[in-house]
Specification:
five-stranded parallel β-sheet; about 120 residues; single chain; alpha/beta
Length: about 120
């Protein structure tokens, strides 16, 4: 059962990554070993905050239905992002429950990414 009071999943704590560190990882991602999964709704993805270049949009509402399709990324580093970091945290727990080990929640979500001045796409 999902515990709404503790911020941890069945597989342990979710690793956090700052927008600065995420940007650094993505900048060094010449081999395609890091993938960004954006779990916001489509209108947010193309809204005023935009999205990170090459991010894969998988809204959290349908993530349980799409998790098997995402197995192709199981051997990569996955950075999960949303508006502020809450939905992406929940998504990280889902990923971990399905055996994804290399998953990071981007702290502060697109709000902090944009505030840090990193490029976004609409």
């Amino acid at each position: 059962m999902f515990n709404i009071f503790r911020r941890e999943g069945l597989s342990g704590d979710v690793r956090q990554i700052t927008p600065d560190d995420a940007f650094k990882k993505l900048s060094e991602n010449t081999e395609g070993n890091t993938v960004v999964i954006d779990v916001r709704d489509p209108n947010e993805f193309s809204g005023k905050l935009g999205h990170i270049e090459d991010a894969k949009l998988v809204p959290i509402k349908i993530l349980p239905l799409k998790i098997e399709e995402l197995v192709q990324y199981k051997d990569k580093e996955i950075i999960v992002v949303c508006h502020s970091g809450a939905r992406s945290y929940s998504a990280c727990i889902m990923f971990k429950r399905h055996g994804f080990d290399n998953v990071y929640n981007m702290k502060g979500g697109m709000l902090l990414w944009k505030k840090a001045g990193f490029e976004t796409h609409i």
